[in-house]
Design brief:
This protein has two domains: 66 residues, lambda repressor-like DNA-binding domains (434 Repressor (Amino-terminal Domain), Orthogonal Bundle), CATH 1.10.260; 60 residues, Cyanate lyase, C-terminal domain (Cyanate Lyase, Chain: A, domain 2), CATH 3.30.1160. With 146 residues, the protein is an alpha+beta fold. It has six helices and two strands. Helix 1 crosses helix 5 and helix 4 crosses helix 5. Strand 1 and strand 2 form a beta hairpin. The mean pLDDT is 94. Strands 1-2 form a two-stranded antiparallel sheet.
């Protein structure tokens, strides 16, 4: 089973069972966001966590094995067409250079790691309309001179 087949099986089982990502991540003892990313094929899980996810979904060892394989991180479209994903693309196009400038000003010349990284997505209730609260934390990695 490849990562695309795994993703399809997981999303189908999640839908059929009416599960939330927290229902799948909790048995694995991991964050909803990371388990979701692994289930979508963009990260991998170690065997105990992969087995727990497969079990929560009622899926077999093929899915667990696919979850354990290292991913090839690729994108299908240069510009995303899903409206929610496109808005993130738009935000990075509008504010990406600002983010870079602010990070460089506060930390120096370098990057924020997407490897040593955490992300939390929360709902923030607001009488004017609920808000999406995304917290991203990545380790700063300075460029070195040689």
């Amino acid at each position: 089973m490849n990562k695309a087949e795994m993703k399809g099986a997981i999303l189908q089982a999640k839908f059929e069972k009416g599960l939330k990502w927290s229902d799948i991540a909790t048995p694995a003892g991991m964050s909803d966001e990371f388990v979701c990313s692994a289930c979508l094929g963009m990260n991998h899980l170690e065997k105990p966590q992969a087995d727990a996810v497969a079990k929560a979904l009622g899926l077999d060892g093929e899915v667990s094995a696919a979850l354990q394989r290292f991913p090839t991180k690729t994108w299908d479209h240069p510009i995303p067409t899903d409206p929610l994903i496109y808005r993130w693309y738009e935000m990075l196009n509008v504010y990406g250079e600002t983010i870079k400038e602010m990070i460089n000003e506060k930390f120096g010349d370098g990057i924020m790691s997407a490897i040593d990284f955490t992300m939390n997505i929360d709902k923030q209730e607001d009488p004017k309309g609920d808000r999406v609260l995304v917290t991203i934390s990545g380790k700063f990695l300075p460029y070195k001179s040689w």
